[in-house]
Amino acid sequence: DAGRGCLAGPVFAAAVILPPDFHDPLLNDSKQMTERNRDRLRLIIEREAVAWAVEAVSAVRIDEINILNASFEGMSLAARLDPPPEFLAIDGNRFRTRLELPYRCVVKGDGKYADIAAASVLAKTHRDEYMLRLAEEYPQYGWKKNKGYPTREHRLAIREYGLTPHHRLSFSHGIGQLELQF
Q1: How many of the other CB atoms lie within 10 Å of CB of 144?
Q2: What percent of the chain is modeled with pLDDT above 70?
Q3: Does residue 145 register a pLDDT over 90?
Q4: What is the distance between the alpha carbons of residues 141 and 121, in angstroms, rounded to a whole number?
């Protein structure tokens, strides 16, 4: 998933089934890759994967069910691939789903398994693309650069301009503590 710690925007989740012989030397945990390499790999993954899907869970839904459950929901939605997977390898230490598929949680799985790494690349690039579109409508929040994460610039913009419909209302925006943080 991508965007769990953000103050604004959806959380994105992806699922990927790569061909058994797939290899790209740049594929790694998306957080350890450059934006340019993630964008390059996104095209390769989307072209060469046996199946892939990306799902977004809105800020409103995150506020309704909390960020962890929203991440699980996004992962479950993305896992409905065609052809269906026989098994789910989940990045992280917890997962809940109503899907009737066996799964295994793998801590730091995006650094260990190509399919998980590919899913992290798709989730991150799709979310970044979405936040860039939102940044055009709300340039004052710095989303072009911070993608909705709680940077100083973003928190100051919230203080000055208030919240947008894309902000997660259940998250602490730190508005009252700004003086203490700087």
Answers
A1: 14
A2: 95
A3: yes
A4: 24
103: helix, coil or strand? strand
Count of H-run helices and E-run strands, the chain: 7, 4
The letter for the amino acid at 145 is K
CA atoms within 13 A on the CB side of 108: 3
pLDDT at position 66 over 50? yes
Q: Is the bond preceding residue 83 a cis peptide, omega within 30 degrees? A: yes
Query: For a pLDDT cut of 90, what percent of the chain falls above it?
Result: 90
Please name the amino acid found at residue 62: I
Predicted structure pTM score? 0.92
Query: Do residues 30 and 120 make contact, with C-beta atoms less than 8 angstroms apart?
Result: yes
Please list, in sequence order, all residues whose beta carbon lies within 8 angstroms of the beta carbon of residue 171, skipping any fewer than 6 positions away.
Answer: 7, 67
Rounded Cα–Cα distance for residues 42 and 45 (Å): 5
Look at residue 174 in the predicted model and tell me its pLDDT.
Answer: 64
| DSSP label at residue 112 | T
Reference 141, options 168, 163, 170; nearest CA is: 163
CA–CA distance, 137 with 174 (Å, rounded to integer):
23
